[in-house]
Design a protein that fits this description.
Distance between the termini: 15 Å
Bound molecules: zinc ion
Helix content: under 10%
Number of helices: 1
Strand content: 35-45%
C-alpha cells in the first residue's frame, strides 16, 4: 500500500473487521484524500484473502466485495462502536473518523 500523506488525508482508518459471528477475523486499512476515491488494503474476515485496491465509495454504508469469496464486507459496521464518540465530536464527525495506529 502506498504511503499515506496524513496532512492531505480526509479520512483514514485502520480497523479489525468482524465476520458474521462477530469475530474479528479481518482487517481494513483505508484512506481518502477527497472523500470520493478510497484506497484500501483489506483482509477478508470470511476467507482471509488479502488484497488492495481503490474505488469510489458513495454514501454509507460501504460494501466492498472480496474478489476471492465474493462476499460483501460492510466497512461501515465497525463504526457503530464509535458512534457515541463521534457524536460528541459534532458535525465534522466524518473528518474525525480517524483511527490510526
Ligand atoms: Zn473473502
Amino acid at each position: 500500500m502506498k504511503e499515506i500523506d496524513y496532512d492531505r488525508a480526509e479520512y483514514v482508518t485502520n480497523r479489525e473487521v468482524e465476520n458474521d459471528e462477530g469475530e474479528k477475523t479481518g482487517r481494513v486499512k483505508m484512506f481518502s484524500y477527497d472523500n470520493e476515491e478510497y484506497y484500501y488494503e483489506m483482509e477478508c474476515p470470511y476467507c482471509s484473502n488479502e488484497w488492495e485496491d481503490s474505488q469510489e465509495l458513495g454514501q454509507r454504508p460501504w460494501w466492498i466485495e472480496c474478489p476471492e469469496c465474493t462476499r460483501s464486507i460492510n466497512v461501515n459496521r465497525i463504526k457503530d462502536a464509535k458512534k457515541k464518540e463521534i457524536k460528541n465530536r459534532g458535525p465534522d464527525a466524518d473528518l474525525d473518523d480517524v483511527d490510526v495506529t
